[in-house]
Every structure is written in C-alpha cells, then in structure tokens.
C-alpha cells in the first residue's frame, strides 16, 4: 500500500484515534521505543501522540508517525482476506487454521477445521511443527491475531498469516451461518 493511501496520522491525535486508524500502533511503539507494553510505559486513550512522544525521551513525532505507518504496511503483508482464506484452504490442504480467541468464544463459534491455540498446542508446534507449513491465525475482529502471527514469525514460522477482520469478517463475507457476536470490552 503506498504511503499516500495510509490514513492520516498527526501528533495532536489521541492515542484512541491513533489505535483506531492503526490497530498495530501500540505493538509498533513498544517494539521500537518500549511504549505501551506495560504499566510503567503505558499511555492513556485521551493522551495525544505528541504527549506520549514528549514524555518518552522527546521522540520526534514525525519519526514515531513514520514508524507506525511502516509497521502498518508490514502488518498488511501478514494478512489474508476472508476470500483469500477460502482459496488457501482449497489450494493448501495442510494449512493449519489456529483460533487465538478464548476457549468460550471458540466453543461458541469457530471456523471449520480450526484448532484452539492453547499453550500446550504452541509448545507442541514450536517443538514438533513444520516451520514451512502455512498457518493462518484468527481472532474475533483481526486485531489480536497480528500479535500472535508476529510471535510465530519471530520463532521461524515464515508462512504464518492472520485473517483480516477475524471470524467476524469471515461471517459477513463468506459464511453468514456463523453467528456474529460482540464483546463489550472491545469498545
């Protein structure tokens, strides 16, 4: 995606607005500047990007903006659309579909053939899994699965992707028989 097509990002935007436009911004800020990953380096939704940059060693806002946008482009390369997932499932029969939601969400509704990603399954995959196999991870709306995909890629699973928009988008675009739901804390 060319930079001109990226959503606008300015220092006077609140962190809530930044995260809405760039869902991976917190991950990007933490990876480069150790901002937003824990209590000691966290930020409030109402703080502006400029305020966060200022109180974190006066990081130049333009530098933070550029990094968030570059990370967003990198995140985009890890994603597959619901329609692309259908194609992958047809063309790669060994594809492993992993659900990173809670057990309760998984038991309520899941994509056909998906396995719940438990700690035990992660340990098994990291010990015995084929790092060249295609893995597609999904969550409810597509925000948390990027973190999980990055974790897998960081451990050598180079063919790991995540489902854009999560199971919710899959239900809307591919299989409306899958029940949709809303989690109150997502607001």
Automatic annotation (TrEMBL):
It holds the Pfam family Rhodanese. It comes from the Bacteria. Gene3D superfamilies: Rhodanese-like domain, SP0561-like. Keywords: Transferase. InterPro entries: GlpE_sulfurtransferase (IPR050229), Rhodanese-like_dom (IPR001763), Rhodanese-like_dom_sf (IPR036873), ScdA-like_N_sf (IPR038062). Residues 91-179 form the Rhodanese domain. GO terms for molecular function: transferase activity. CDD domains: RHOD. This is Rhodanese-related sulfurtransferase. It comes from Prosthecobacter vanneervenii.
């Amino acid at each position: 995606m060319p930079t001109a097509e990226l959503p606008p990002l300015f220092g006077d935007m609140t962190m809530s607005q930044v995260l809405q436009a760039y869902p991976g911004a917190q991950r990007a800020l933490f990876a480069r500047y150790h901002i937003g990953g824990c209590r000691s380096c966290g930020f409030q939704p109402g703080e502006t990007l400029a305020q966060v940059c200022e109180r974190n060693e006066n990081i130049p806002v333009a530098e933070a903006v550029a990094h968030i946008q570059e990370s967003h482009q990198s995140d985009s390369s890890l994603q597959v659309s619901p329609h692309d997932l259908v194609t992958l499932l047809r063309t790669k029969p060994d594809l492993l579909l992993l659900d990173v939601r809670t057990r309760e969400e998984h038991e309520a509704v899941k994509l056909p053939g998906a396995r719940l990603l438990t700690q035990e399954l992660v340990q098994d995959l990291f010990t015995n899994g084929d790092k060249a196999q295609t893995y597609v991870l999904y969550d409810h709306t597509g925000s948390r699965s990027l973190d999980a995909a990055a974790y897998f890629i960081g451990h050598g699973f180079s063919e790991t992707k995540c489902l854009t928009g999560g199971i919710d988008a899959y239900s809307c675009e591919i299989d409306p028989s899958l029940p949709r739901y809303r989690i109150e804390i997502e607001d």
